[in-house]
Amino acid sequence: GLGRSTKSKAIVDEYAQIDLDTDVIFEYKPSRKIDAIIHLAADMRADPYCVEVVQANCTGEQRLLEYCEKNEIKVLMQLSSLPVIGRPKEHPITENHPLCPKTVYHCTKVMEELLAEFAYRNKGIRTASFRISAPVGSRMNEKTIFPTFVRSALKEDDIVLYGKGTREQNFIHVDDISQALYKGMLSEKCHGVYNLSSYTQISNVDLANAVIERLHSSSKITFSDNPDPLDDDIWDVDISKLKTDTAFEPQHSVEKMIDDVAHWYKDKGVN
User: Fold this and answer.
1) How far is CA 205 from CA 164, 170, 201, 220, in A?
2) Do 95 and 208 contact (CB within 8 A), yes or no?
3) How far apart, in Å, are the Cα atoms of 174 and each of 136, 143, 253?
4) Is 58 helix (H, G, I), strand (E, B) or coil?
5) What is the pTM of this model?
6) Tens digit of each residue's pLDDT, the chain (271 residues)
7) Where are the alpha helices (DSSP H) in the chain?
């Protein structure tokens, strides 16, 4: 494992503190040969004028790919982001959907995909970029809609919806993301850009109802006067290409995700 922290939060046999903003990675000599790299790192700040986001993500990507070339590492799998398409305009959403990145961060994700493809064509490194939809799991961003609804339900607070609550998202459990990366790493057919999502397409209002029902909460659904600018967006993600090339099959339901986030909050003392 590589990371900026002095310690790894993951369970790994070997860990090195390395910042991809620097050339230090080229000095890293692992104790065993590396067969593949799974690249999850990113500066995710949404600041529209943050040069550091471009530097960290694009330079870090290129350094990783050059490290693969120099050390004869033949496989690199990485996470991208489905919102590189902007707002859905074509349905279902395939890998051929037109791109319209909504932040500089999403622009860097497109560049990372291009750099990975360049390394495949010119250096023979088998690369794949997985455009994930809305990920759910413990330690996720607590400001997003899924944990916000679960937290409110656990506290018996009202679940407040903006707009009409009609926006439909497609959530994916972090364990399914891990499964897809693992299968992609092992499948020789896996290369290029893939949508990575599940079968959990659900509107905001239906998600609120599902959370209340699953957690046996007395919370009520209320509607704010604030509009949701993304009302009526439908993220109907097509994952057929990924299934064909890797035999990936999502395993986790919305109910399982609600349970996992609720257990995480209970462990933190939120009731």
Assistant:
1) 8, 14, 12, 11
2) no
3) 6, 17, 12
4) helix
5) 0.96
6) 999 888 887 889 999 999 888 899 999 999 999 999 999 999 999 887 889 999 999 999 999 999 999 999 999 999 999 999 999 999 999 999 999 999 999 999 999 999 999 999 999 999 999 999 999 998 899 999 999 999 999 999 999 999 999 999 999 999 999 999 999 999 999 999 999 999 999 999 999 999 999 999 999 999 999 999 999 999 999 999 999 999 999 999 999 999 999 999 999 888 7
7) 51-54, 60-70, 104-123, 145-154, 174-186, 204-214, 240-246, 254-267
Q: Which residue has the tokens 């893939």?
A: 194
Structure tokens at 250: 């999502």
d(CA 48, CA 13): 38
**Matching residue, tokens 């550091």:** 52
Token readout for 161 is 């919806």
Q: Which residues contact 206 (CB under 8 A, 6 or more apart)?
A: none
Going by their DSSP bridges, the two strands 168-169 and 202-203 should be labelled as antiparallel
